[in-house]
Each structure stands twice: as structure tokens, then as C-alpha cells.
Amino acid sequence: MADVSGGVAVGIDFGTTLSSIAYLDEGGRPILVPNSEGELLTPSVVVFEKEAVLVGRVACRQMLASPERSVANVKRHIGDTAWRFEVDGEVHTAESISAIILSKLKRDAQMHIGPIEKAVITVPAYYDDLRRKATEDAARIAGFCVLDIVNEPTAGALAYGFGQAEDATFMVYDLGGGTFDVTVIDKHGQEFITLATDGDVQLGGKDWDERLAKHLAGEFAKEFGQDPREDLQAMAHLLVTAEEAKKSLSTSESVRVPISYKGSWGNYDITREQFESLVDDLVTMTELTAEMVLEEA
């Protein structure tokens, strides 16, 4: 058990698709804290059921049944004052929904390490002041005293660089579930200087999933004359299937994807080469950004 005098200070990785929380043990080592399901990563998903608000893994499962009552990838909207999610006559902002996710992280972590008061939260390096302030507001709504907002690539560089004795310059390429950034950082002793950074708040693994899901839906529509893209619940299921297929293609040359919709059942073989062709422009966007950042640095 960590020393809880004055409350534990934690670090939070608030991700578009997955979030986590950690603290430093007595030896100064970062320790990820499991959630109430025993997992180290909590899906950043919220479902507003009539009886309760579901968060995390249970929300992921319920989202397949109630996509119209579900919010995923809310991080993409944080700081957007025009974005709203309305359900059962109640209007929710990106900050209030983010606070629900952060509250679960805090509540679950306190079961393991005791009272938590302070937090450092990471954000994409290219976040403007509005998005940073909105992230801090969400954390405060969740009951955290925010010590600092740290750029995600800087956090990665710190974790890597503190284990390196020599000074160095390195690039952090961070393609997350919903956001992307590239940062070049210079390490001098214990000082880390950001030389250049850029990214896209609307580019991440979610876009890879959507490309594959839309392709599969199109193939199904050609074969059966019915398009799963027209059905919110069918697309929720297909996006999960597409994500699993994407992961499988990391280790397999091909994968067979089953799709069931309105009484019809199809099986579609997708090769790694096909998938890479589907997302080639997305990869190119990240490469161009990386090249631009390297030139700027």
C-alpha cells in the first residue's frame, strides 16, 4: 500500500479509446493501477442507460446493443464548445463525459492505493489552450487537483530518456486510437527540450477501423443488396469486428471476416496487402507530418 498521507498523486493517460492511471511506488517506479475489472486499461466509453451510466468494458459491451445511447472517442471533441450529446432530455458536454471516465479511473484506483487528490494528465502535444483547459476542467469535475498538463510525447520521452545516461535527440511518433502527433525532443542531462511538434486531433486507429468496416459493408451490400452502413447497431458490431481483423493482420497475412445482417451471412477474406491499400493515404499523412517535423527540428 502506498503512503496515502495527504492523498496519492497519480499520472493519468486519458486516451481516445483507452485510459489508464498510475502512481510512483516508494522506489520511484511507476505502477499502473488496475480498474474494478482487474484490467490495467479502461475503455474510454460511456453508455447512458435509463437506470445507470456505464463506463469502461461493460459500456463497450452495451454499446453494441445501444449505440444511440453511447459515446466513444469523446476526446476528439474535448474543447469543442459546439459539441453536445443529448439523451433522455439531458445534454452532456465533452468535458462532462470525460469527467465520468476520469471519475471511474479515480474511484477504481482508490480501492487499491487509497485516497487520491492530485493528478498529472497527458494531452496531445499540439493541443491548443482551449483543449488543455477543457481537459483540466474535466479532471476537476472528477475531483482531481490538477498539478500539471503534460504533452503525451514529452511523457513518453521522459519515460525513455530517464533511463538513458547519454544526451540524445529522438523523435516520438504517437499514433493513438483517435489522435496522432509527432514530436522531436532534445535531451540534455535532466532537461528535455521540444524542438518541433505537429499532429492531427482527427486521425488515429479508429480511422483504420472505419476504413475496413466500410469496405466490408460495401462488399456485403454488393453480394446481398443490403447495406449495414445504414444501420447504427449493425455498424457498431462491424466496427468491433473490423478492429479485431486489423489486429489479426498484424501477425497474419490474411483473415476471414464473417458478417451477419438482416438474415444474410457473408464471409470475406482480407489480406494484409488489401488492408494496407485501403489505409495507404492515412499512413502517408502520418509520414508527411513526421517528415515536416523532422525538417522543422
From TrEMBL:
Keyword Chaperone listed: yes
- Entry GO MF terms: ATP binding; ATP-dependent protein folding chaperone
Record's InterPro entries?
Answer: ATPase_NBD (IPR043129), Heat_shock_70_CS (IPR018181), Hsp_70_fam (IPR013126)
Per UniProt, the keywords (alphabetical) are: ATP-binding, Chaperone, Nucleotide-binding
Please name one Pfam family that this protein belongs to.
Answer: HSP70
In the UniProt record, does the keyword Nucleotide-binding occur? yes
Q: Please name the PROSITE patterns in this protein's record.
A: HSP70_2
Extract the SUPFAM superfamilies matched here.
Answer: Actin-like ATPase domain
Concerning PANTHER family, the annotation shows: HEAT SHOCK PROTEIN 70KDA
Q: What protein name applies here?
A: Molecular chaperone DnaK
Record the organism.
Answer: marine sediment metagenome
Recite the lineage of the species: unclassified sequences, metagenomes, ecological metagenomes
